[in-house]
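Q: How would the structure tokens look for this protein?
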Amino acid sequence: MDLKIITIESEAFYALIEEVSQKLSKPKLDRFISESECMEILKIRSKSHLWKLRTEGKISYVKDNDHPKLILYDRGSLIEYLTKNLQHSF
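A: Here is the predicted structure in token form.
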């Protein structure tokens, strides 16, 4: 086995360590989330309002035919919905 030594300036080394540390500390967000997580993101309390958003096609969801009561929501579509309805102040 050939041993290879890599040299790096200390400043570059610490910058690299900091970058790796930041990437590892960021929580990985799931693409599909539960009903309760969806309602928390949208800041709504009513399941009927969530049903209305879903049936009107305003937010995307996944429904498993094997588990018809399990509905998962696409986090990206929730962000799109909120962004689309964003009101800018004057």
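The chain has four helices and three strands.

The chain has a mean pLDDT of 91.

Upvote if useful.
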